[in-house]
Amino acid sequence: MGVYIIRRVLGLIPVLILVAVVSFLLIHIIPGDPAAVMLGTDATPQEVEKLREDLGLNEPLHVQFYRWISRVLRGDLGDSFFMGRPVTVALLERLPATILLAVAALFFAVLIGVPAGIIAAIKQNSIIDQLVMITALIGVSLPSFWIGLNLILIFSVNLRWLPSGGYVPLTENFIDGLRCLLMPAFALGFMQAALIARMTRSSMLEVLRQDYIRTARSKGLAEQVVVGLHALKNAMIPILTVIGTAFGVLLGGAVIVETVFAYPGIGRLVVAAVQRRDYPVIQGALLLISSIYVLVNLLVDILYTLIDPRIKYN
Amino acid sequence: MRRRLGRLIPLCVVVLLMVTLAALGAEKPKYGGVLRVATTTSVPTLDPMVVTHIATREVGMHIFESLITFDENFGVVPMLAESWDISPDGRVYTFYLRRGVPFHNGKEMKAEDVWASVVRFLEVSPRKGELANLEEVKIVDDYTVAFRLSQPTGPFLAALANPIAQLAIMPREAVEGKAARQAEIIGTGPYKFVEWIPDRHVKVVRFPEYEPIDMPTSGFGGYKAAYIDEILFIPVPEPGARVAGLEASDYDFADFLPAINVPDLMDQPGLILDSLMPYTWPVIYFNFARSFGSHKLRQAVQAGLDLDEIMIASSDGAGRLDPGMYFKEQVWNSQVGIDLYNQKDLDKAKALMKEANYAGEEIIVVTNTDYEYMYKAAIVLEQQLKKIGFNVKLVVLDWPGSLDVRKDLDKWDIFFSSHSTRFDPSANDFYFKPETTFFAYDNPEMVKHLKQGMDSTAFEDRYRAYEEAQRIFYEDVAMIKLYDLGIWQGWQKYVKDYRPWVMLNFNSVWLDK
Questions:
Q1: How far apart are CA A2 and CA B468, in angstroms?
Q2: Residue A156 Cα, gap to closest chain B Cα (Å)
Q3: CATH 3.30.70.3040, applies to B34-258+493-511
Q4: Which of A302, A220, A244, A269 is CA-nearest to residue A92?
Q5: Chain A contact for B264 (CB, 8 A cutoff)
Q6: Cβ–Cβ of B245/A156 closer than 8 Å?
Q7: 3-state secondary structure string, B89-144?
Q8: What's the rounded mean pLDDT across residues A141-158?
Q9: I need a surface site. Which of A29, A291, A296, B52 has the fewest CB within 10 A?
Q10: DSSP per residue, B446-511
């Protein structure tokens, strides 16, 4: 197992290098000059040119990449053009908020998705099943920003129950922090809840048709025990895979939701950085999100062995 | 009857007086409260000298002050200096500082602080070029500072007063030897800086020892007071979220509201909506290195455009037509060129196009979606140009993308942009000087007038010079001003004495709740 984990961690290195190269190339291909954006329309071409020179943007792309990647390998993601601060600091300042949002969204997604999927599977072809599946279909189809704006309209503007945006760390004020978190987490998690519900349903249906489930039932075991203990545990592998993927998607999806809810996380930082062509911030954020994503997937792979002892990584 | 009326009149007067007094009493400013302001963007830094970013200057407006500032006509008035002399040769400006003005760190503002602030400005500010003629700053005594220039410089006072990348007067120890963005955030303004949590808020609190100037309030100048205990500048980039937050009372004030929401917001009894007019003027640049090198062809566009239509379609009710390169509210405004502005003469346009021997060359119009008014204006302009007979190709990018295209004179013919408030006409010079223009404009006569404006110090001489420049602007069709555009702002009714003017300014604003 230990060898497997080391092998997988080493395997992450080429993945992250690939992410670094692709993110660097992509953002440099998009038309836009950070120097021109920073100085605005009132700057002379000479001033723009001088800033380009100062920022090292006039050097060939491969030289810029070499300079950036050699700093990254030393744990330094460079300095933001716009903020004039280290990208690492800017990301770390916002990381707790984004992780909290993603975890809360995942919590919603699992809390809604898994029970809904189980109920739909047990009551296959019933009205409940159809209701759950239609809701799931709607959930998959609705964009998170639309859900977010409607939640604001209902719960902030009309009912005035929750704040329309913002962020308060839970350690600072738990209740206020929770109030700020509820709507963005739900808006972000709803689509994943739908996906998890669909996956849980199909996985459960497959397991519920197995012989050992029939045996368990014929032994006279309570239905809750059959479903909760025997069926769900064996259906968990694909569900866990979806949950693992969902976490990565939630980190990426936070880009939109954070903007809608004025939530000060990495997603909003990325949006602003793209609008300003703040290359170091975009590259650093993509690298960070990718790293978390692949690490979560590794964690999911390890969790497989806990759920299903037959799985061995030797 | 006459006797009864005779008794009633004094009674009415007394009642009226009482009502007036009661009304006046109700409007007496109150101290206290927290003001939550939803802004459009985060601050990149609070160091006031080093960036021109709107968020930095709007927060800085409450923390920092300059030697001099602008009144509501954009004339220069005292702020930290109580007065100044100009030597007969126009080269030495001597400023006499107000006494007893404390910084937020408790120290009194003196000449050495002014000297240190100017020295640092010359090192780190993107506007340092505006003080290129400054030869020496000399401390005459604790309350007197002299600036010696290499030659008389018309925009010198405006450069000191400009709130963009502000020459804020800060304590010597807060700025001396401090690199860009490293200054300590200490000023003399009504509010002092407390904390900046990136993307969450900037918090400033009332500075009880603030020493206001004894002059009537006007523009950025005159009497200011800090009534509110705490102001939170909260960046909310999504316009819909600003609207919802204002409606839900999560914010007391919201900037830059989408015009589409304004009618609904106006119906809400607890809110006040007003436009900050003028805010900017949308403009189209011509690329003189391609087809629009032809004067006749530029004149054809100038003659054929219907600016009313463009304004109605793109300003969402916050526009007005005016030919001035400087807003009506500014002392620099002139109506020269009005005959050539908004002509709406299709026949003349077609005739000029024929005279220009236009043979259907592709006209590339570049606009962007980041500024909706530019995008909408471009859609209408495209149709109007087609009506004249131009072969138009509309290119829509985001703002950074369009700026990138603008650099390459082979890739565009017409470019959409806008001009914000110019605190001095010289801010426009770079467009028209051959060595700094980006659209290949070149007219020695224009340069001659701009130089006159730069070298003169008397207002009348400078006004004449820039009025002449505006005449050439229209005759040359150097670019086309479309209209003046305002932006919508909204606030709760209990926010008192806020007046939209140039940029966010909550000095002397108070909360009635």
A1: 81
A2: 6
A3: no
A4: A269
A5: no
A6: yes
A7: CCCEEEEEECCCCECCCCCECCHHHHHHHHHHHHHHCCCHHHHCCEEEEEEEECCE
A8: 92
A9: A29
A10: HHHHHHHHHH--SHHHHHHHHHHHHHHHHHHT-EEE--EEEEEEEEETTEES----SS---TT-EE
Q: In terms of C-beta density within 10 A (0-12 exposed, 13-18 middle, 19 or more buried), how is residue A88 classed?
A: middle
The pLDDT assigned to B23 comes to 47
Mean pLDDT of all residues belonging to chain B? 93
Which pTM was predicted?
A: 0.88
Please tell me the predicted confidence (pLDDT) of residue A314.
60
Conformational region of residue A275, where left means phi above 0, alpha means psi within -120 to 50, and beta covers everything else:
alpha
Question: Does B370 sit within 8 Å of A31, measured CB to CB?
Answer: no
Mean pLDDT of A154-176: 94
What domains can be seen in chain A, in order of their start residue?
A: 2-73 (no CATH), 94-307 (1.10.3720.10)
Contacts of B234 in chain A (CB under 8 A): 166, 262
Sequence-ordered list of residues with C-beta below 8 angstroms from that of B467, at least 6 positions apart, any chain: B334, B336
* Sequence spans of domains, chain B: 34-258+493-511, 278-486
The yes-or-no verdict on residue B36 having pLDDT over 80 is yes
pLDDT tens for each residue of A239-254: 888 888 888 888 877 8
Here the tokens at position A199 are: 């996956």
Cβ contact A166–B235 (<8 Å): no
A180-203: pLDDT as tens digits: 999 999 999 998 999 899 999 999
**Do B61 and B504 contact (CB within 8 A), yes or no?**
yes
Contact A90 B405 (CB under 8 A): no
Residue B171 one-letter amino acid: P
